[in-house]
Amino acid sequence: MNKLILGRYFPGESVLHYMDPRAKLLAGFIFIFIVFLASNWQTLALLTSFTFFVMCLSGVSFKVYLRGVRPLIWLILFTVFLQVLFRSGGTVYFDWGPITISHNGIINGVYIFFRFVLIIFFTTVITLTTKPIELTDGIYFLLSPLEKLKVPVDEIALMLSISLRFIPNLLDETQKVMDAQRARGTEFGEGSLLKQMKTLVPIFLPLYESSLNRAEDMANVMEVRGYQSGLTRSNFRRLTWHTKDTLALVTMALLTLGLLLLQ
Amino acid sequence: MAMQVKLSGVKADYQLGPIRSPLVLNGVDLTLSSGSLTAVVGHTGAGKSSLLKMLNGLLLPTEGEVQVGDATIKPNHSKKALKEIRKKVGMVFQFPESQLFAETVEKDISFGPLNFGFSRDEVLKRAYEAAMQVGIDPEGGMMEKSPFTLSGGQKRRVAIAGILAMDPDILVLDEPGAGLDPAGKKEILTLIQSWHKTRNLTTILVTHDMEDVVRYADNVVVMEKGKVVMHDTVYNVFADVEKLAEWHLDLPDARRLQLKIEHETGKQLPGVCLTPEELADALIEVGLV
Ligand SMILES: Nc1ncnc2c1ncn2[C@@H]1O[C@H](COP(=O)(O)OP(=O)(O)O)[C@@H](O)[C@H]1O
Ligand SMILES: [Mg+2]
């Protein structure tokens, strides 16, 4: 449970920690798009070195990032396999009905693998260096134009921040319930798949119950403290845009340009 | 059958993702004799809960070893062997009602014993025994109810019964009275004490209430910053007033009143008075009443 690092914040003092969350979010969006520009080895090398540079800036050890990839490794390998098996073109190494392993398939598989890993690394940098609450503030700001279209951005942001707020509690609670059931003789991750699934019931039911209770408490507290949806609220935390944030976005633009030129 | 518990040079920490926490147990040496009922006291964060988790391998030592009966838990202990230990060590967590999950009270109480491989008949017998012990009348239709429909106090009892039904040799309880009203708390601790006596268990109990210590325990372990700083009889621990003040620990009401009387009158009362009765006797003895 404690091994899951995707979506966790690591307190620190790096430049990235002090950047505006809006800049980081925008950079993240841009990155996800430009990853698809990496279609030859030069662009791939450029993007990889850029990602490593950003990872170094965060001051978090590489081991942490590798852990972040681990839970997703099967998903990644599965996608890569599909690419390798069903893409055709170039020299054919193996042919059996619809399944062919060809030169292009393998190359594409490699690209897909790198794109996946780079996206995970880059987004992990963002979540590791940004407090969840800052992320929601950033998302709120970036979504606020949608308010014109009657999208309840305020409520969405509130829901997001409440959920994020309770993730650590939920993790703690999961740990506690697992320990309690272990003490009653449950062995997790052992035996057949069916057996393993059965061990989940004694964890999820208590968690479900306590989450419902907590949600109800929360709703009551909010009501007592005068929360009403649909009102305009002022913000306690202010986001401030610095030169380094502009610089970061300029860097992203230059990177995009570089990728386009190398293509 | 009671068992001895012995920790030697135990150090432990928690792994939080890639980071390790500072040592939460920092060189604990402790022997709990067979058949004793020990209260563990100390501040929040002193490592009491971690010490308890150590006893059934939910937390493994990074150094040192834990002997539970004839089994020994070492760093890198194999998972398989832990199940044997967990069968012997019944652990009641803080707010144990949050572990209830089954459709009926009976199924929930039976969960532990079934996991440890007792036969169905045996399990049923134990479940009913344990329910009786915690004051849940099996005849009254309680066993068929959903645990989620019970009151807080009843849930707590069911959860404790779920551990007692495992028939452990060592009973470990983390603040079993927390969050209950005084009467409910007293009832639960009394039933634990009586189970301890009739089954001849070795029992360890974390509490913040010094009255509980006096009423139920025969030994006290004081924890401070991941270490056991004192382990003695209840009498001796409460005799050492300076040390307790240094650790910012409370005294039982009678003892506090005794000190106040001694301070005001300048007279020394005989012995250490832990209960109102003892204090009254001492006052009579020195002729203050
Ligand atoms: N699951 C956990 N993960 C990380 N740290 C923990 C965990 N449980 C307890 N700790 C830390 O270990 C220390 C001792 O905690 P604990 O054993 O619960 O003390 P106590 O029960 O005396 O209050 C505390 O500093 C606490 O923050
Ligand atoms: Mg505790």
From TrEMBL, chain A:
Q: Which InterPro entries match?
A: ABC/ECF_trnsptr_transmembrane, EcfT
Its predominant location is membrane
Report how it sits in the membrane: Multi-pass membrane protein
Membrane-traversing stretches: 21-38, 72-94, 106-128
Which domain of life does the UniProt lineage start with?
Bacteria
Q: Where in the cell is it found?
A: Cell membrane
Subunit structure, interactors included: Forms a stable energy-coupling factor (ECF) transporter complex composed of 2 membrane-embedded substrate-binding proteins (S component), 2 ATP-binding proteins (A component) and 2 transmembrane proteins (T component).
Q: Which family does it belong to?
A: Belongs to the energy-coupling factor EcfT family.
The task this protein performs is described as:
Transmembrane (T) component of an energy-coupling factor (ECF) ABC-transporter complex. Unlike classic ABC transporters this ECF transporter provides the energy necessary to transport a number of different substrates.
Listed name of the protein: Energy-coupling factor transporter transmembrane protein EcfT
Organism name: Evansella alkalicola
Its encoding gene is what?
Answer: ecfT
